[in-house]
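protien #1 (seq + structre)
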Amino acid sequence: MPFAPRSSFVWKLRSRSLELGARTLVMGILNVTPDSFSDGGHFYDAASAPERALDHAIHMLDHGADLLDTGGESTRPNATPVSTTEEQQRVLPVIEAVLRERPRTVISIDTFHAETARAAVAAGAEIVNDVSGLMWDDAMAAICAELRCGVVLMHARGTPQQWSTLPALDKAEIMPTITHGLEECLAKASAAGIAREAIVLDPGLGFGKRGDENYTVLARLDEMRHFDLPLLIGLSRKGFLAQTLATAPGLGQIYKELPAPADRLHATVAADVAAILAGAHIVRVHDVQAAAEAAAIADSILRRG
């Protein structure tokens, strides 16, 4: 059975539009945090910021990134919350530095705080990527509507502080839980006046979904086509991939324990290709060149399907 063609969209951002569907766009992850699960502290140093982050941003742009997603607060399980003041002190200098060096860069701010969203868009960000889907800050929906920026609405089940204690989902519950949650996010966005053309959806792999629950989402991702909105997938280096590698037949001699985040590249690429073939328009990744190459192959398959 041929792969279903991917729908095409025009994503309305703050000052421009992006065509989605003809090819997969690669969103490079630029964390300026000391504690993110994969690259905490790698590109954040209070003494040298934003130079290290800027160097990494330029590297990603030169190796296939179409967008950059900049975040200043970790959302790993049990992450310690930070103030919006500290979050902005981390991200705003980086956004400004990148745009000075590469003025046409499309930057997304990864935040669930309305104050940070407003400040980042004022600094030049085009998109607000809210992992809570507008649900954790009552002011976020109105702010995004006012800013007329692009918006990524992600489904999160619970908060980072709750994930370790959430009960497992029955297989039959997984997609309905995500669908219902995103419907609530979309209703909130619509009520605030956010244009539908500004919205991209993200099912939130790893955000309150455990282990194999994430594979169910990937296997049934095409069910999200009914929203008639573009899809973003963020699974780069995530723990559910490591769990599979550590228990897969033939890999036991390689991995005596869970592979470190940096050792999850091949698994990430495989999962991203599966997501693209199932309809994802954007992949959010740490390893940009590998993702761009994989997306080129997956896109070629879709075009011939």
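ok now protien #2
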Amino acid sequence: MSKASAKPIKPLHTDSIRTFYWTEDALFVLDQRRLPLKEEYFRADSLEKVRKSIRDMLVRGAPAIGIVAAIGVYIAFRELSKKAVSKITKAYLDKYMKRVKDRLSSSRPTAVNLFWALSRMEKIYKEFMSNLTSEELDKKVLSNLLMVLRDGALGIWQEDITSNLKMAELGASLLPEGWILTHCNTGALATGGYGTALGVIRRAFEVGKRISVLIDETRPYLQGARLTAWELSKLKIPGMIITDNSAGFLMQKGMVQAVIVGADRITLNGDTANKIGTYSLAVLANFHQIPFYVCAPSSTFDLGMSSGKEIPIEERSAEEVLYCTGKRIAPMQAKALNFSFDVTPGSLISAIITEKGIIYPPYEENIKRVLENRL
């Protein structure tokens, strides 16, 4: 495990499960590819290393990706401050900011939180630069800019934790007792702390509801079997891993009382992009008249998109399907199709839990109303 040589930078609330931690030296990202067998942190002390941690799925989960990207902007500018640049001008920094944003934006295409966080950091940068009167800048100005970017990234992290806790309180009231089915990983590992959909389950359990969790293994990356099961074991919440194709049969047997999942992007009509396999669960839940809930912070909504047809869907390497734990499980000549996400129509979603309130259909009307606090 990598060791930090400086005092950690952290928000007011810290979770027992550390997805990442941040010091003045570097960002240390828990390599989720190695869980649950190893807990190793990757030292990301440069723009390219932060990009690698997102692109190669050391960190995953839309909120966590956004936070890491925000911290990545700070790290990129700190990296610049250590270089021997003979002349620093506004124009030079503007070009550098664009390069940083472009590099981090290209790491993952579907999770809107990534682009939201980078746009937020760019806005912070532009507000700082607009107050400068001289074209040529000195080291003191760059030092002040670093402080502003540092505080901006920390603010994004803190806001995510606060919204997680709020969503957990609101969503816990919706969950019935019994078996709750979830897909992929939506806990502290996918966020700044506590969790979205898994945070709702966690809070319901904390307030005394008798619930157990059915954990979809979530092929091909096994985020459920490796990560959600790992989190639940740490939290001492009862659960059982199931194969992804077991869900329909268990619903038929009456063994599923509710389904709750996270989201990577939600459009104006409630269409929701989430880990591949979510759409199948929603169709099954609808057929069996089981409530199907989505839990996501307001930063996951993309109100510039009218429907899920506009969402870019990431297609990842076929190797993730053809191999498992480093061993090939398919014939050498076999090929594979590996879409990482699918889109669930809003018509199949019972409610969307956000930190600003629970949103019910019709989504075209209620999403904007709740997000803009027009009660």
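Residues 139-172 form the longest helix (34 residues).
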